[in-house]
Amino acid sequence: MTQKPLNNEWRKVAATIYRKPVDSKIFGSVEIDVTELEEFISLKRREGLKITLTHIFLLIVARALKNEVPELNTFIRRGNVISRDHVDAMVSVLNDEGQMSSVKISNADSLNLTELAATMNDEIRNSKLGKESKAMRAKGFLAKIPWPLRIWVFKLVKMITIDLGLKIKPLGLSGESFGSFVITNIGSIGLDMGYPALFPTSNVAIVFVMGGVSKKPVVINDQIVIRRIMSLGAALDHRVVDAIHGGKLFKYIKQVVRNPRALESKPGD
Q1: Could you tell me the sign of the dihedral formed by the alpha carbons of 15, 20, 26, 27, in that order?
Q2: For the residues of 93-130, what is the DSSP string, one character each?
Q3: Which runs of E-coded beta strand occur in the chain?
Q4: Residues 82-96: b if buried by 16+ CB within 10 A, e if exposed
Q5: How far apart are CA 94 and CA 191, in angstroms?
Q6: pTM of the model as a whole
Q7: Cα torsion 251, 253, 254, 258: sign
Q8: Are 18 and 149 in contact (CB under 8 A)?
């Protein structure tokens, strides 16, 4: 017998906001050797700093958008490319019901690893206690609206916040609700690689995906050795960036992964 899909709030919202893909997007992926990086994380955890690969890559991407690839910290408004002067990160997390939720880390590029760990812990704790931001709770509001009125309300919200750049204060929605970029760790749910969607009601130019980590044979100094390899993927908004910007991002990620201690200090220290 075929099991009927669970028609939860997110599925109702997804059916409202997504349409057949017709817009131009850029997808890219790389494989990263995280063998030494995982050792660094284990060391920091033994020292009492509870960090994961998600903390590392969130901080790397945030700093990259600030200093290395500012083109990725932009959005389109009324036909023009607009640059942000700050970098906020939206992180996907699993709630206690096993559904995906999100927390927002403001000014992520200005934090060090210790500050990021404390901030994320606070935001995730608030999310699990039902203290999500208004923007995150808005999906429940949208899911309760009957079809087809739901899609009309969504289009109106999108026009006000994204196209016109205005705020809807009662819902906590604006063009900045979802930050500068979205990062999600699908490896935590058993997936090795994924190519994400660009959320239609956000102004993000990039969605960054962390895949699973597995052992693979790698040639180092002409010797075949077993290393821990992670797959990374990204979807880019082709209206504001080109593939070269994704290449610059992944190049910077590889550099910092080889020197993660740089993330222990604040930028400029």
Answers
A1: positive
A2: EE-TTS-EEEEEETTGGG--HHHHHHHHHHHHHHHHTT
A3: 25-33, 74-77, 80-83, 89-94, 100-105, 181-185, 206-220, 223-237
A4: eebeebbbbbbbeee
A5: 14
A6: 0.85
A7: positive
A8: no
What's the DSSP call for residue 267? T
Domains of the chain: 20-130+170-259 (3.30.559.10)
Sequence-separated contacts (24+) of 216-222 with Cβ below 8 Å = 216/31, 218/33
Whether 92 has a pLDDT exceeding 60, the answer reads: yes
Residue 44, both tokens: 């920091």
Distance CA 89, CA 60 (A): 11
* The pair of three-digit structure tokens given for residue 25, joined into one six-digit string: 């997007």
Structure tokens given for 63: 């700093």
For residue 10, pLDDT over 80 is answered with no
Instruction: Kindly report, residue by residue over 185-239, the tens digit of the pLDDT.
Output: 988 888 888 888 787 778 898 999 999 999 999 998 899 999 999 999 999 888 8
Is 216 in contact with 229 (CB distance < 8 Å)? yes
